[in-house]
């Protein structure tokens, strides 16, 4: 992504200068310029858009912090204009606070403990009638709590407020593994209500509550802080309630950039169901990638080809071959996890010797693993930047350490995707009650997103026993 001096294509210009009211959906394959267009359109709207409330004229929302930081830095480096970029969560909590609705603290890691606490309280009133949710590799109790956490999140994202609604609900998107009886649902709903009252008592809310609070209190959100023009990047990973909340609070125009092929969080919504009108000219498609070489795109396509559900979806965007050629992606296999650290240092040195001014991303499954890479690199005198904090500098050359999830929306000259090991990717345990096919598809998309971050070279680092996704790649397309 870059907003440097780029000559936009006619399709991209059409998106940038599209009418300044109502909705616009920009779909496009990785590297097709969605972020670029969103930024150009943000600047276009800041000059040409109408301002109907004193709130922010143009607001750019992203799903994660890494992307919003990246965007801010790109704009600062190349333009005088100020584009406000923040995550949905930052924006939502700020609106709730500024409108005097709530200033509750948002919990994330503590959610498991609170759900457990709620379940234990409900148990005191009588026997719990709950389904068996045991998954391989997790204790029975933990599995059940994980299932309840997901179910509570589903209840909230479907805006279910009362038991009769839940009893009638079809639980779309919750897989077929766990079937709930009426008695199960009654118990789950009791636990859900108790969980909510515990949160309230502690003046806390969870991530799902932010969007819900905005929807439920939309009339109380002060009009003078409502944004005029909102643009969302990587919108495929927002939840239905988040999109609805944004839509209901946007005064003039809403631009949404998305690619279902890069959806790495499980979301089940249609644009229509969240109130986004994408009929006719309001839906645009960018089909040419400007980022990666032909060799990288062909390999990514051979992986994506295994997602049958995606390629049969009518929103599926096929990857077209770019004109730029480059080296074949490389597969490195390490016998053990420790060996991978050494392999990585060697590979980084090799890239740095050939391309001293370029940036290199090491993508890993967890922060713990990234810390190990950081340590190894430091031991060998190689500096690196950990893309965890808000202030990570994306623009200076060098080695960047980033998780699969945070790599979304970013790009690097050279990408090394690590940890391609059975049990790590796809991860060995899926959420209890999850649909196996859907779980595997999401894990595959994580790898697809990571691979398509690369501009010039791509290295895949597998550790024995290697990830089954490696077997899905066309063997003729890597060395
Ligand atoms: N018209 C163009 N001409 C040349 N380069 C372009 C053009 N449009 C975009 N690019 C470049 O292509 C790269 C990818 O663009 P961008 O990040 O906007 O794509 P994206 O669709 O948002 O990707 P993803 O969905 O994978 O995050 C960037 O380096 C950008 O500068």
Task: Spell out the blueprint of helices and strands.
Blueprint: H1 10-16, E1 22-28, H2 34-48, E2 58-62, H3 65-78, E3 84-87, H4 88-98, E4 105-107, H5 111-124, H6 140-157, H7 163-168, H8 182-201, E5 204-206, H9 207-216, E6 229-232, H10 240-249, E7 253-258, E8 283-286, H11 294-304, H12 308-311, E9 330-334, H13 337-354, E10 359-364, H14 367-379, E11 384-386, E12 398-403, E13 412-420, H15 436-451, E14 454-463, H16 468-472
Helix pairs in contact: 1-2, 4-9, 5-6, 5-8, 9-10, 11-15, 13-14
EC number: 5.6.2.4
Binding site for ATP: 28-35
Family: Belongs to the helicase family. UvrD subfamily.
How does this structure look, described?
There is one protein chain. With 479 residues, the protein is an alpha/beta fold. The protein has three domains: 10-101 and 209-286, 3-Layer(aba) Sandwich (Rossmann fold); 109-205, no CATH class; 294-472, P-loop containing nucleotide triphosphate hydrolases (Rossmann fold), CATH 3.40.50.300. The protein has 16 helices and 14 strands. The chain has helices at 10-16, 34-48, 65-78, 88-98, 111-124, 140-157, 163-168, 182-201, 207-216, 240-249, 294-304, 308-311, 337-354, 367-379, 436-451, 468-472; strands spanning 22-28, 58-62, 84-87, 105-107, 204-206, 229-232, 253-258, 283-286, 330-334, 359-364, 384-386, 398-403, 412-420, 454-463. A six-stranded parallel beta sheet has the order 3-2-6-7-1-8. Strand 13, helix 15 and strand 14 form a beta-alpha-beta unit. The longest helix is centred in the middle third of the chain and has 20 residues, at 182-201. The chain is globular and about 65 Å long. One of its GO terms (biological process) is recombinational repair. It is an enzyme of class 5 (isomerase).
